[in-house]
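Continuing from yesterday's entry. The apo prediction looked reasonable, so today I'm repeating it with zinc ion included to see how the binding region is handled. Same sequence as before; SMILES copied from the compound registry.
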Amino acid sequence: MNQFLQNNLVPIVVFLLLLIFLLMGGMIFILFRLLTTAKNEPTASTPLEKPVLRPVADKVLLAEKPVVENYYCIHHKDAPSVGSCLICEEVFCADCLVDHESMHFCKEHFRTYANYKWKQITDVRTTPDTPEDGLFIYNFKRDLWLNKSIPSFVMTHYKINIENDYIESFIQLNVREDDVEKLTLELEKYKALD
Ligand SMILES: [Zn+2]
Ligand SMILES: [Zn+2]
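Holo prediction written out below.
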């Protein structure tokens, strides 16, 4: 047995070290998950009759995302904001924000979301080298809301290439079914001006 230990000391030590690293990695991962899920406490969500979309959670922040300057709910001056509504982009506290399938809406716009059928009209690919490629969609969406009160929302779908450590994102603008034709044309024009 001693002979065996002596002959295999190096691989045994390497194996034990690897084991320790793996365990530490696992613990750090679990801790990280606990911390991040604690931050995203679900808020009261109203049941929805028809699940319309199943987009991927918009968790990674993009450079083109609006900077949240207001840290308090627009309805409750002393309640810290926990996120912004996908439609109006205002910030809200946990009581005012509805979390639905990883999408956030204020109560008013959750009703808007639930009352219409939505269609995705863009799927613009951006990469870390071309982060601005989807910017016109965010600007278009904001213009629609601020100038015409037309609701729409942007979802970002991420594809992560693990080998190359490379993230592609797909910027997806969702509009009401009845607006599809009109807004697709308007977006084309908007992009040409951009
Ligand atoms: Zn809203
Ligand atoms: Zn509030």
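Comparison notes:
- The first strand starts at residue 83 and ends at 84.
- The chain is about 40% helix and 20% strand.
Will overlay with the apo model tomorrow.
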